[in-house]
Structures are given as structure tokens and as C-alpha cells.
């Protein structure tokens, strides 16, 4: 419960979390310390200052009470008040207690004065800016004493707070700079890994703290190994295909002059072998088709459909949602759609190509009205060299079994996948190339 609650408010990035981990404890300690310290200190200082004013009031009152007439009383009181920066007069109007609610030291002043001196009546902090008006009872009548605020309470702790504030901000700023320096190598590693996942090899050099550097080194080793393997596979397949071409061509030539009974069959075999070799070569080269660039996939889809129509297929463009440009290797993408459309028209009659775009992914779908592929065979159909049960697709002609595998390879190169399902509209297969944004 609390976990999910916290998770919702926790920043997602490492930088954000580290900042929070840094700020919350330091901020809390600072706040608590300042409040406790300021309250104690200023309360004590205020009390001490007020106590000395209370003593002056006692003296002033005793002088006034000793005088014979009210006039003498007031002049006796003034004789003490003036040098002490207080001013005293008879009270004409009634005075009531008044204090701003946030004026905490005012509360201490009132409590201290009343405790020290029972002749102190109402105390008003608000009527006169910068002064406290205190009503006093003398035997000659009520007196009004005006005490400058600076004489009773300590000045506001501005300096102290400003100093703490500025120092903490400076320290936090330096800490954040340093933190950013620590997070940057992790970000770079993540960017390099995610680019490689999408088939791009961006320059990357391990940097940062030891653990990050280690992860970076491991990533580079892994990337090198995968690149080497891909290269070897390409070399192997294209080498073999290439080397087989020459003897095949020779056989074809020889067959031209041959006139035996199995001639037609042999020519068909040679043609089929030729087609297979071409498919192998395509497969081997699918990794290196084109450079990644940011483009809008819509025109590519229209072009692929047009090409299929020219080739005699019954292919149409379905719903195309608008999308921002995505990073694509255009020729590879074209090949992948071409393969899916090729399957759709080979195993069905009608094909429909659509595009749907969501916040995180773009998917190109190719639907057909053929027999489809049952769910349990879908994974197998994606593997190289698998052709499903031939009786399911009679007169469909037989391919090599590489079309879906090549499309899958291309999708993975772009960081995406191929998903097979049942076409909701046409009832046959729906093959979708799902690419992340
Ligand atoms: N649209 C589809 N409808 C029904 N079955 C399909 C469809 N697409 C592919 N399949 C099945 O999946 C198998 C693998 O398809 P894939 O495209 O990889 O190979 P292929 O079409 O047989 O040969 P290639 O495409 O290399 O010429 C096919 O043999 C076929 O049985
Ligand atoms: Mg195919």
C-alpha cells in the first residue's frame, strides 16, 4: 500500500531519486535544527530583555506612586522613562490586548511582563508600529507606557536564516552538479545499449564510477562479439551461395544441350535451387540494408502496396493512422513489408495493409483472407527454413521458408518484433511489424 503510494510520487530517473535522497534528510535536519535553535535562542533572549524592561517599569511605578499629585507623578515617571527610551503619559482611551498571531516573541513578552509586575494591564502590539503599548496602574490613575519593540524582543533571525539558506543552496547546487556527472555515464551507456538494440552502433567509451565503467566494458565486449557473429554469418551464407552459383550456372548450360527424358524436371530443380540461393543471400544481407534515418513510414507502405499490385496481387491500403517520423532503414523496412504482402497474396487472395500508431509503438499490419496460421504454429513459422504443412497451402507454391524470418530479423534490428494473429476483418493471418518509437 505505502509502497505503491511512494512509487507514484518517486521520481523515475536516477538523478531525481538521488536528488530526493540527498535533499530530504538534509532538508529535514536543517529545518528541525533551525526551528528548535531559533525558538530556544530567541525565546531566551526575549525573556531576558523583557525582564530588564520589567525592572524599569517597577522602578518607574514606584517613583510615580510616591509623588503627591498626578502632575508630579507623571514628571517623576518621565524622569526615569526618557533616558531609557520609553515614553509615558496618562491613559486616555481604553487599551486592549492585541498581538499578531505569528508574533511568537510577543507572547513571551506578555507572559514575562505580567509575571514580573502585577500592575501591568493590557498590552497592545498592533496599534503603534514598532512599539508595544503597555497599560500600567498607578495610584494616580492609569498610565500608558510606550516601549520600543527593539527593547523587549530580539530582532528577527533574518541573518541567521539567510546564511543557512544561502550555504545550503550553494552546497546542494555543488552536490547536484557532481551527481549529474555521476549519472551522465549511466545515461550514455543506456543510450548506446538501446541504439544497439535498434541495430545502430553508436560510438561509446566507458566512463564514470568503477561499476558503471565495468558495465560499459561488458557492453562493448558483448557488442563486439555480436557484431563479429553477424559478420561471420553474412560472410558464410553469402560465400556459400555465391560459390554455388557458378556450378549451378554450368549445370543450367549443360542442361540446355541435354535432351534426355528428365530434362524438364532437372531444369525445375535447378531453378528452385537458384531461387533458394537468392533467398539465402537476401537473408544474409538483410542485416545491412540501408542506413537508419527518421522518416514517415506512410509513403513506404503506399509504395510497397503499389509494387505488389503491379506484381498482380490483390492488395489494398487499409486504415493508415497519422504518425510522427520514426527511425527506419527504409530498404530493410520495405523488404519486410514486401515479404509479408508476398505471403498474404500467396496463401490468401486479398491482402490489406494498415498502420496504427500509439504513444509508444507504430505497427504495420498485413491482413489476408487465407487459412491463417494456428496459434501453436506461429512461433515455428517465424523460424528460418520452416514451411508449414504443405497440404494446408496447396497450389500456393513452395518458398524457402525465409520470408517471415527475414521480416523478423529486420523488425528486431529496429528494436521491434513481428506478431502473428488472426485477421479481425479478413479472417486469415494478420502479420504485424511492431516498432517502438
Ligand atoms: N499469410 C499467411 N497465411 C497462411 N500461412 C502463412 C502465411 N504466411 C506464412 N505462412 C506460413 O508460414 C510459413 C513460413 O513463411 P515464410 O514466409 O517464412 O516462408 P515461405 O513463404 O514458405 O517462403 P519464402 O517466403 O521464403 O519464399 C509458410 O510456409 C506458410 O506455411
Ligand atoms: Mg513467404
Give a short synopsis of this structure.
This protein has 437 residues and is α+β, with helices and mostly antiparallel strands. 57% of the residues lie in helices and 16% in strands. Among the domains are: 13-152, Beta-Lactamase, CATH 3.30.450.300; 290-436, Histidine kinase-like ATPase, C-terminal domain (Heat Shock Protein 90), CATH 3.30.565.10.
Could you walk me through the main structural features you see in this protein, from its secondary elements to its overall organization?
The chain is α+β, with helices and mostly antiparallel strands. The protein is built from twelve helices and eleven strands. It has a five-stranded mixed β-sheet. The chain has a four-stranded antiparallel β-sheet with strand order 1-4-3-2. It has a two-stranded antiparallel sheet with strand order 5-7. A hairpin with a 2-residue loop joins strand 3 and strand 4. The radius of gyration is 45 Å and the shape is rod-shaped. Adenosine-5'-triphosphate (ATP) binds at residues 279, 339, 343-344, 347-348, 368, 370-373, 381, 386-388, 393, 399-405, 428-429. One of its GO terms (molecular function) is ATP binding. Its EC number is 2.7.13.3. It comes from Boseongicola aestuarii. It catalyses: ATP + protein L-histidine = ADP + protein N-phospho-L-histidine.
